[in-house]
Amino acid sequence: MAAPERKLKVAIMGAKGYPYVYGGYDTMIKELGERLVAKGVHVRVYNHRALFKDRPRFVNGIECIYTPAIESKSLTQLTHTFFSMLHACFSDVDVIFVVNSGNGPFGIITRIFGKPTAINVDGLEWLRPKWKGLGAKYFFWASKMATKFYDQVINDSDEMRRVYLELFKKDSEVIAYGANPRESVDAGPIQRWNLESRDYYLIVGRLVPDNNADLIIEGFLKSASQKKLVVVGDVPYDDAWANRLKNIQDPRLLFTGYVTDPNELAALYSHGYAYFHGHEFGGTNPAMLKAMGYGCAILALNTPFNQEMLQNGKHGWYFEKRPESVKEIVERAELEPESLGHLRQTARAGLTQKYNWDYVTERYLEVFEKLARK
């Protein structure tokens, strides 16, 4: 009798873990991991031990390994991946999948052990204001090392693929993030903040300079709008830049902090008048995908990445990186409610096949199976 076929074993690392959903990478690991398990793949996720009080070995069929890290703002993520990489290299996994270009240099470890690897490099980390000086130099170098040490580089947008080809002379597979569209969402949860449907603009994202909340807030407050501007998100540490924003006194401004309840977040997206997207240096952005999936009228910073996602203006309007441009787009939005209604009606149509999680999973599985055969 023939022996049963061995399951493909994939180790995933570089994010906070599973099922810890906080950022884009964590969301991807959840959506991708659960679908791979359903397809018969053995999925192992390396969790950041300090974030998990309970540490079950298996959750929803996904094997969880809890590795330590040196806990500091700049070292936590890198040391967590380093320890995870060593553990995976001494195990029987077939393929190691790493997220975050900062982990680029660790590919040399897998080279030594002969383990096939893929890395999702995400955005232009070296341009982000928070990594000034040495941090920026490290991320540029690490991204370059990712193209040398990993067997397969994965980017999440065509524009990011072009950047990597231009800067590092390395081609990559383009596999976007997925979206989970929802047609109708009850407005009840927004009453928690005394909000009414279509009576506010929305920003969702970490309060860091490259998401440009300061620019949007300044431009909005210069406008004559009587609606509110609701800012969802924060930073998990004490930060002078974020504190300065949160201390702005204006009755039209509302900071909710983190919103972790998915129904509350869905209601905030679905019932806004328009969604502001100021993210500057990423590829396919999960917050934008959510906005499209919830049928938002999207007002986005004019970047090549946002142009790609909104199909060059088919599914949103653009503003420039000037407060005056934000003020103008707010005033236009309030003069043209029918145009915003049209954007809401057609937003989900922008979620083409490449943003479908099942399709995304198929693409990743093809990459992993090809690497395993090597």
Short description:
The protein contains 13 helices and 14 strands.
Task: Give a verbal description of the structure.
Keywords: Glycosyltransferase, Transferase. It is an enzyme of class 2 (transferase). This is Glycosyltransferase. Residues 196-348 form the Glycosyl transferase family domain. The chain is built from 13 helices and 14 strands. By secondary structure, it is an alpha/beta fold. The protein folds into 2 domains: 9-178 and 356-373, Rossmann fold; 188-353, Rossmann fold. An 8-stranded mixed beta sheet has the order 3-4-2-1-5-6-7-8, with helices on both faces. The chain has a 6-stranded parallel beta sheet with strand order 11-10-9-12-13-14, with helices on both faces. The two termini are 27 Å apart.
Spell out the blueprint of helices and strands:
Elements: E1 9-13, H1 24-38, E2 42-48, E3 58-59, E4 62-67, H2 76-89, E5 95-99, H3 107-113, E6 117-120, H4 134-149, E7 152-155, H5 158-168, E8 173-174, E9 200-204, H6 213-222, E10 228-232, H7 240-246, E11 253-257, H8 262-270, E12 274-277, H9 286-293, E13 298-301, H10 304-309, E14 317-319, H11 323-335, H12 337-346, H13 357-373
Parallel strand pairs: 1-2, 1-5, 2-4, 5-6, 6-7, 7-8, 9-10, 9-12, 10-11, 12-13, 13-14
Antiparallel strand pairs: 3-4
Helix pairs in contact: 1-13, 3-4, 6-11
